[in-house]
Design the sequence.
């Protein structure tokens, strides 16, 4: 009857530590501990209902257990409820509830909640836009663990656009925060630093295209679509000290296409439409090129639409699923 023991046995079964992994048995123990009043078990049981692990997926039960856990002080439950109410998933969207739960979790020291509060105030997401509060919560996140350097990165982006708050942080401070976040592994910051090095800025960074490529590559390895686009464009146009190379450009544009980037879809379509006869050669595939251009045009890409009209090819009204991988010959 010891609720902590019940909750811990549930975790062992969930993780398969010392026992054969079983979500169903984990749920059984989480339920016993939750009914006995254990807040951590309530949170874990809510996650099981949320994700349909060991039990049928049930949004109502998930929110019920998260709420009971949060009322007993569980910080993780408060954060998850903030996420659900902010996004309006599994519950009706309610920014005020989101702020309430995030604030409670932030007061308990949760840096993820601090970051999300900052994002809500920075973008005016269901609350009045307030740069002062945004900076405040981003700074607090940076002082309390800053998951993936999100707080530091967001301060840098706000400084970049002159929204650094009343403490004198302006564009000249942007590079300081963005470089720190980039060096901590934040992909968005790595892309932004790459952009700053590519163009040179008034924020303390001189143009250095080698550094730009370095940071773009770092971001692209983490799946940043904009970094793939930037690298693809360099090799497509043969700029910034790289030779034109459709093969390398296509590789980066394909990654961007898979992430839904329209510019990458358009450029990859051009590459396949034209091909390249100069070394390194790239075989044209007009059929695939047109399909990609149609996919971009169907989602509102103006240049793709104009290219198709000049080719006397009608764009499609709706985008179709496009594969960027050639079919294997039988």
Sequence:
């Amino acid at each position: 009857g010891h609720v902590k023991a019940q909750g811990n046995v549930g975790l062992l079964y969930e993780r398969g530590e010392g026992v054969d992994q079983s979500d169903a048995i984990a749920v059984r123990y989480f339920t016993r501990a939750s009914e006995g009043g254990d807040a951590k078990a309530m949170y874990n049981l809510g996650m099981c209902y949320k994700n349909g692990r060991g039990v049928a997926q049930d949004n109502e039960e998930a929110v019920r257990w998260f709420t009971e856990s949060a009322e007993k002080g569980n910080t993780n439950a408060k954060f998850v409820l903030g996420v659900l109410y902010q996004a309006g998933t599994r519950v009706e969207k309610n920014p005020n509830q989101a702020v309430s739960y995030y604030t409670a979790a932030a007061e308990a020291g949760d840096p993820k909640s601090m970051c999300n509060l900052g994002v809500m105030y920075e973008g005016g997401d269901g609350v009045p836009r307030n740069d002062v509060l945004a900076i405040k919560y981003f700074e607090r996140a940076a002082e309390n663990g800053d998951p993936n350097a999100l707080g530091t990165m967001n301060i840098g982006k706000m400084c970049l656009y002159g929204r650094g708050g009343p403490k004198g942080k302006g564009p000249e401070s942007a590079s300081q925060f963005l470089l720190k976040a980039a060096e901590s592994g934040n992909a968005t910051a790595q892309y932004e630093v790459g952009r700053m090095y590519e163009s040179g800025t008034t924020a303390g960074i001189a143009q250095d295209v080698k550094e730009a490529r370095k940071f773009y590559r770092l971001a692209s390895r983490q799946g940043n679509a904009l970094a793939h686009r930037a690298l693809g464009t360099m090799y497509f146009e043969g700029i910034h000290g790289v030779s034109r190379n459709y093969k390398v450009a296509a590789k980066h544009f394909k990654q961007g296409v898979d992430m839904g980037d329209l510019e990458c879809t358009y450029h990859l379509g051009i590459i396949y439409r034209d091909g390249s006869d100069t070394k390194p050669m790239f075989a044209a595939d007009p059929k695939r090129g047109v399909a990609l251009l149609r996919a971009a045009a169907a989602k509102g890409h103006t240049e793709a639409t104009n290219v198709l009209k000049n080719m006397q090819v009608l764009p499609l009204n709706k985008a179709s699923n496009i594969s960027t991988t050639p079919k294997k010959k039988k």
Remarks:
- The mean pLDDT is 92.
- The longest helix spans residues 3-15.
- The radius of gyration is 25 Å.
